[in-house]
């Protein structure tokens, strides 16, 4: 290492530039390493959140099965359908295997469902699914990296996270290719490399020009002084028109050349005097060379604090010493300020700048060094503003999501109350339908009884008609008897007349005739009474028949009314049943609305968790950028604290439901680093 700081001035200056280049490259490499670690952690956290969301979906349907809302088979089918629909980052998906290594669901390649995947290997022959499922069963969750064969047959690095669901013996997993992370990393690496190479090339070029501008004139002056020491005064000194310290040194050497030329042209006496003066001057030159040598050696060794301390009677030598001191001071000041700025950049302090006033190459070095600091400050400021904007945006989204969660919860409570009221209404309508059905049955029984009464009344009417007919016949018979009694009376009267005509011989016959007449009169009187009674009875039978007919008519009207009432009761019962069925459908719809509201509440909760994770990643990006100290920002520690993992949010107490975590969390990061 010591040979870097020995030798010529140019070599030592080049060594200093080389050390600067190594230090700057080391700082950039450290920042790239920290970036890669953060990107890897971000991807792991992202897929962990998606898999935990899938596990929450499965747990929700498991709770429904445990509550008896649906069968276990139906709950598992619904859970798999929900997981199959989950997509994030465009084409990323979930898959489920059981503890026996049988694939239960594969959203990307459904033909794998039902196959045993215990012996599946990656591009390196690694049994990654065996390890993934075994470790997830043992530890509850597990991360694994392996070489994944994509649809084009190329092997790419992939990281997969799995979480076990013990009640059903499932392992829910998802993975992402690291190509996105590598693309972002290599984009940042290439950008940083180009900036680093540009800065290093500029510094090395300017440093080389400065070293050449310093070493070449000094080397030329050394050669010219050697020729002057050999009494060669024919040389032409270059650089006398320069306005810097080297120009002053050239003009001082020119004085020596001119004096030497004059001495060579003088007489011996003058030469002796001049020789004496020259010896004195040579002694002074030795002292000057010794003083210069100490300063130059110290400068070559990297120590620019040494100065020419000797005092000379010759003002020109004092001027030369002052010029050398000024040269060393200028170089010392320029290198010191540049070194301070580069050291600050290496320590992530972007506030330092080269403030001194310089000319020529040092002015260019100042401008380029300050330009590097300004460019890095702009990049870091843009990153810091982007991360802050991201955190503000996620905070606003989180506030809106919390408000939506509260409103969804209130809506769920209202829908539950509505569902309870609809269930009560359905129960009441069902009771009314049952009562209407019972009333319809009673009306039917009344109608049947009325029909039987109508039949009885019809028979009574027929009986009264038969009685009336019989009364008519009896009346005819009585009339006939009355006629017979009248004829008998006439015969008895004739017999009495004839007996009277016969005298005594006819007295007995006359008595018989009188007796027959008296009997005929009695029969006639009796038949007349019977006829009156029969006629009275016939009248009463006719009245009874009319009453029976009227009662039959009224009973028929009652029967018609009972039948109409029965039809109305049947219609009421049928309409009540239809109303109950409609209310039941409405109740089912309300329950579905309730379930969807609970699903929405769960989605809001999962969205909150994803937003909090995004906010944590934005904070992690703040931590990365915070190591740089710019104007208007507080200094931050060198170490970058790893982002604390966001704890998985407990599912909502009402019901958990399907959630789709569509995340494009690395877009802002990729945009910011593209400018770096």
TrEMBL record:
Pfam entry (one): HAMP_2
Q: Where in the cell is it found?
A: Cell membrane
The chain positions of domain HAMP read 212-265, 329-381
Topology with regard to the membrane? Multi-pass membrane protein
Per UniProt, the keywords (alphabetical) are: Cell membrane, Membrane, Methylation, Transducer, Transmembrane, Transmembrane helix
Listed SUPFAM superfamilies = HAMP domain-like (SSF158472), Methyl-accepting chemotaxis protein (MCP) signaling domain (SSF58104)
Signal peptide span: none
MF GO annotations:
transmembrane signaling receptor activity
Methyl-accepting transducer domain residues: 386-615
Under the heading InterPro entries, the entry gives: HAMP_dom (IPR003660), MCP_chemotaxis (IPR051310), MCPsignal_dom (IPR004089), sCache_2 (IPR033480)
Q: Spell out where the chain crosses the membrane.
A: 12-35, 168-188, 194-215
Which GO terms are recorded in the biological process aspect for this UniProt protein?
Answer: chemotaxis; signal transduction
Please give the GO cellular component terms listed in this UniProt entry: plasma membrane
Q: Which family does it belong to?
A: Belongs to the methyl-accepting chemotaxis (MCP) protein family.
User: What is the name attached to this protein's record?
Assistant: Methyl-accepting chemotaxis protein
